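A quick aside before the break. I want you to see a complete sequence-to-structure record at least once, exactly as it would be stored in a machine-readable document. Don't worry about memorizing anything.
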Amino acid sequence: MAAQPQKPDWSATQYLKFATERTLAVHDLIARVRPHVHTASPRIYDLGCGPGNSTAALLAAFPGARTTGMDSSGAMLSRATAAVPKAAFEEGDLATFDTPAADVVFSNAAFHWLRSAQRMPALQRYFRALRRGGVLAVQVPDNYDAATHRLMREVAGLRGAAWASFFEGANIGDVGDARRPDLDPVEAPGVFYDALVPWAGSVHVWRTEYYHVLEDAGAIVEWVKGTGLQPYLQRIGDEGAKEAFLEEYERRLAEAYPELKDGKVLLGYPRLFVVAVRK
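That is the input. The structure line, written in tokens, reads:
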């Protein structure tokens, strides 16, 4: 019988193992928002705020802002509330959350968790609700075809493996099955542009690939255990099978990410950015 997918058990501690690297894109995105904010006390929503690292960066950039962080994980929100006491935090669903009268709707690495059918309608709803001159600023990982994520799919689909029974009927790679553990590919830049431009004074879309120096392939495993690997691990109901899955995944990562001269590895991490200003 196929395992039923579970809600990812997010760990703020696991996520923050690479807090510096994960927050690079936050600062880059904020830098593109700054020129469009003309009030000392903007109303800002940080959607998918996680443990609050992005919320803290927003408050550092806009110290007079009235800022609310939203996330679906209670564990993440508990960490965020303790880390950023000047902000308010709410639990919510990215597909349905309400952001009334906002100056900035900001989201770092969250919208890729929505299925394609939900993603553009949600972005359009948030954008249309902005005040005139308000800014929608979004960043999403664009790594569906990267080795990190391709190998997740390959390892999960290995026949006869100790974990194979937990992925029966999972339809990994079938974008028509919303219950599968792998995320939908991110849409092309033009799709984001076309979705927002009817209500926009301007729309800017760009892609950056960050290269993170990590200790070894095991460190890459630790990185993705905090994010994209979660839905796979949650399906595996046996600890021995889970460890075997991780060992095989790490072995293949070591082949895909060869050692540098000092023994470390270079993780390429592409991200897609969108900054749109409401007309």
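Two observations worth writing down. The beta strands are 43-47, 66-71, 88-91, 104-108, 135-141, 200-214, 265-278. Residues 1-7 have pLDDT under 50 and may be disordered. We'll return to this after the break.
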